TrEMBL record:
Domain N-terminal per the UniProt entry, residue ranges: 12-113
The organism of origin for this protein: Mucilaginibacter lappiensis
Region (Disordered): 368-392
Ranges of Acidic residues composition bias in the record: 373-383
One Pfam family named in its UniProt record: ArdcN
UniProt protein name: Antirestriction protein ArdC
Domain Polyvalent protein metallopeptidase: 163-287
């Protein structure tokens, strides 16, 4: 891929969103497809079971597939699946801290042993943007039937989608005051105001609206401390709404109750202006939306509990997706070194001090971290001196 001719991914995403918004069929505007199924299906790597970061999830979700499974052609081949004829991949980006390169002679020829190219791991001083083309399960041959995969996904889930949504709202411990006709978050009073549940079309609509207000509630200085400025209809107001909208899509997809952006028509013109004038804002908004979703879904807490209760390490048979390939652990040693085989058949022994060893361990114990969007942290504390309605 020629970087000089490559249009950066946030720009590509912004341009596509603008086109869809103008056509009235973006994820913000249409949460249900014509076949009656959710417009956004949370993408997942079926081999590792891990999801994708917010921006990548939106990119994949905008393809409108009903199948949540996504992986690279190489990873698919490693699992015995193949890309169907004429299917095109969807590009995503992720930060990579190292790269596997072929070992070459002084003349530039690859060094091979028993017909296998020998490789080395090159560590980067700073994370570099990595790219991968992914294919949906519906684009691959010989995949496990979707119904069976989905049944396995839900096998340990005892609560219904609506029960999970209600539990998420209750677990947040947010102050929710019912009454009136508007749904909004009052930042100064740190309280969510909602119409009575019976005023909504059904329970799903009520829960979706409450979760949307919860996404704004996370911005309080005692929580994620986001800048939430501007009056209704302003660009600053729209920036917060963009973050809340993306987070609502992610949470609704995870809980399987879908999303409802509410008064979306009031924000679309400003969304288009922001995406057109500041295309990289979508990456920043996605990063913040990821934090919102993580906080409300409890992803970070679950990960910390899991890591605290488990001793990090490898075991024979582990399959770890990293850098658009999959590594299988063939042997483990008392020294904690491991022998691995990648999807090309190349084998090597990795010691704990090796960069690739550390990267694979991180990919195993913190799978979400490998897909996080690269952005500088921005977030300054902003004092709110007056009552402010957000998310009307």
């Amino acid at each position: 891929m020629n970087d000089k001719n490559f249009k950066k991914l946030p720009i590509q995403l912004s341009e596509k969103l603008i086109t869809e918004i103008k056509a009235g069929n973006s994820l913000f505007q249409k949460s249900i497809k014509e076949n009656g199924l959710p417009a956004f299906v949370t993408p997942v790597n079926p081999t590792t079971g891990k999801g994708y970061s917010a921006m990548n999830a939106i990119i994949l979700g905008m393809q409108r597939h009903d199948d949540p499974r996504w992986m690279s052609a190489e990873a698919a081949r490693y699992g015995g699946n193949w890309v169907k004829k004429d299917e095109k991949g969807t590009i995503i980006e992720f930060p990579k801290t190292s790269e596997i390169q072929a070992i070459r002679t002084a003349e530039g020829k690859r060094i091979k042993k028993d017909g296998v190219t020998q490789t080395k791991t090159v560590e980067f001083d700073k994370p570099q943007p990595g790219r991968a083309f992914l294919f949906n399960g519906s684009q691959l041959k010989d995949m496990e039937p979707l119904e069976e995969f989905l049944a396995k996904q839900q096998s340990g889930q005892t609560l219904s989608p609506l029960e999970r949504a209600a539990k998420l709202i209750d677990d947040s411990k947010a102050v929710i005051i019912h009454g009136g006709e508007e749904a909004y978050y009052d930042q100064k009073r740190d309280a969510i105001f909602m119409p009575e549940p019976e005023n909504f079309e059904n329970e799903t609509k009520y829960l979706q609206a409450a979760i949307h207000q919860l996404t704004h509630w996370t911005g309080h200085e005692d929580r994620l401390n986001r800048t939430m400025e501007g009056k209704f209809g302003s660009l600053d107001y729209a920036r917060e709404e963009l973050r809340a909208a993306i987070a609502g899509i992610l949470i609704g997809g995870e809980l399987k109750i879908g999303h409802n952006f509410g008064q979306q028509a009031a924000y679309m013109n400003n969304f288009v202006k922001i995406l057109k004038d500041e295309p990289f804002e979508i990456a920043k908004a996605s990063r913040d939306a990821q934090k919102i979703a993580n906080l409300l879904l409890g992803v970070s807490q679950k990960r910390q509990q899991k890591q605290a209760s488990e001793t990090p390490g490898f075991k024979q048979g582990d399959e770890i997706s990293y850098m658009d390939t999959t590594y299988k652990v063939l042997e483990t040693y008392k020294t904690k070194s491991i022998k691995v085989e990648d999807s090309t058949g190349s084998r090597k022994v990795l010691k704990p001090e090796y960069g690739l060893y550390k990267s694979l361990l991180e990919a195993k114990t913190n799978p979400l971290g490998q897909e996080m969007v690269m952005d500088e942290e921005q977030g300054e504390a902003v004092e709110q001196e007056q009552s402010q309605k957000v998310g009307r």
